[in-house]
Amino acid sequence: MRTAILLGVVVLAGTLGEICVTHAMKRIGELKSFWPRAVLSMLGRAFRSGWVWLGVGLMALSFYAFLALLSWAPVSFVIPASALSYAVGALGAKFILREDVCATRWTGVLLVCAGVALAWAGEENATVNLRAFVPGLRWGVLLAALTPFGYYLLSIFSAWRYFRELRQRPAALPGRPEFTPPVSILKPVRGLDREAYENYSSFCRQDYPEYEILFAVSDADDPAIPVIQKLIADFSERSIRLLIGAEKLGTNSKVCKLCRLVREARYDLLVISDSDVRVSPGYLRGVAAPFRDPTVGAVTTLFRGIVERQFTSEIDCVGTSAEFTAGALVARQLEGIKFTLGATMATTRERLAEIGGFEALASHHSDDFELGNRIAAHGHRVELAAEPVWMVFPRQTLRNYLSHELRWSIGLRHIRPWGHLGLLFTHGLPWSLAAAAVAPSAAVGVAYVGAYFALRFLMAWTVGVWGLEDPVLRRKLWLLPVRDAIAALVWLVSFGSNRIQWRGMQFIIRDGILIPVGPPPAEAEAEEIVLEDPGPLVGAVDQSQIPD
Amino acid sequence: MIPSKSVATKTHVLVVLMVLFSSLGDILLSKGMTQIGEVNLASSTAIATAFLHTLTSSTIWLGIALLLVFFACYLLVLSWADYSYVMPASAVGYAFVAFLGYAVLHEVVTPLRWAGVAVICLGVLLVGRTPARTTEPS
Fold first, then answer.
1. CB–CB of B124 and A118 under 8 A?
2. List of residues 6+ apart from A79 with CB closer than 8 A
3. What was the ipTM of the complex prediction?
4. I want to staple A308 with a disulfide (CB 3.0 to 4.6 A). Which of A395, A481, B26, B38 is the partner?
């Protein structure tokens, strides 16, 4: 049974991998000239293609399964059986790649199949002694499977350093007034998030001397508008404005709204946060404080979750606390923070102008990452505010959750291609399972899987429960292995596509830029018509002066 | 659907290159691994030594380099030729390896294996008679 399954993996993964590679190369187009330049440029294009990487991954999986098979089944069975892949490959070529496999070619393929099976049937010791690979590959896998453990230990260390430092830092320096310059809070909004009123109103209850809140929506019929109007009425003592409509400067509609918000903001310190974020009354003080140091160019915050009692909402939250935050803290430990997170992006008008304003990011997919990254590239520090904010994770279907995770993963791959590839060595679950599969004894296998569970839970606990004090993670720590399995699959699939679904529209990401593709759905079309003629909308609907 | 003569020629050249590089790469890599031998996984020094041997073995590095060249040829040929053409055609490598084993390494090649090699060659010959490209250039 085990042999049959593994043989299936060998044949199917190998064939699918080769089909992916063929598909990629056909898309790139025929090589016409054999000058080294043309050849190298074509190979360069091939290795930038997601399909090639997906194919290589599948082939590696097939090869690995092949060696695993060799380690217990006789060579005289394994190789002849794997000759099947010639026939399966021809089927794939016919039905997936739509190649014309004529009768002559079929006969040839089947003869090759039979010939390969025949040639190896009686060979225990062939020239290419594949068994020689088995021990080498086996300890290679056992060695590589240790790297995620190293990553977990590094995460634990990074989180421990950060949160310990934070807790030892005195709340305020005696004899020194707090740093509280006037702040403009900018909130680009689209549609209604869960508990939107509670989220928005938490920003109106800030313990802070002088600040204003600006909301922006794209359409006059956005369902968030009544909620914001109620907010304006309920907190009449606060300066709250709602802007409707934004010039379409690029494909990222959130950034288009930010461009307008920045223009309309009154103050120099700009605090931007996503609409699903909720904060405590001390939030603004915490975000403004680091700007006392003139070397600080941007401030961002970590976040913890508020969830629905629903599987995808919970697993989303577990993932961000135990994985995303861990990654951010490791990055901080290794090279300092060179990014901002959508939960909070705070910067000054001056720093923003240095990187060309939000206008420079109007078509970027990961605008939050880019903002901090560009400010850091100009030699300014990016700091974490002391207190994490709350992120409200919505109830969502599994499909929506996966598509959102995939969008994230593809976006990340475009920002940091090598870093994203390096994530291979952070996926402890598949590695320890692979190690267990090839382990020389049951004890070693159990040790790997046991070490995974122990270190993974300790890491999540240190980062999320002890550090972030995330109540969801504390309750749902047991979801971690499920989340890890999903994360590994999403990571793998992210190499296969540049196409993402975002808010009902299809985009291709190229060099971090969003390029819309295909006919947009009806709803999005209507929006485009409104946005292409922003004239009467810009500045026209400004509800700041609603009478009490 | 119009396979020109030049397409056939360049496909044949690249398939031959693929076969050469992959066979030689496989042989070198497997020789290199055999030299290192079985690793005692209970001993961390044995693992470290084996790891070091792998990294410093020129046979293994040469094998890896040849396999990389093979993969590059494979990518290039697939940019125009059918997968269902290249895949069976490269099986000619089995014949090449068997011949190499017999003529150069003086191995005993069983009659069964020779029979298999003959059947493979027949199959490859048939596949070679079909046009190398059947899909439209995009």
1. no
2. A116, A117, A120, A123, A130
3. 0.85
4. A395
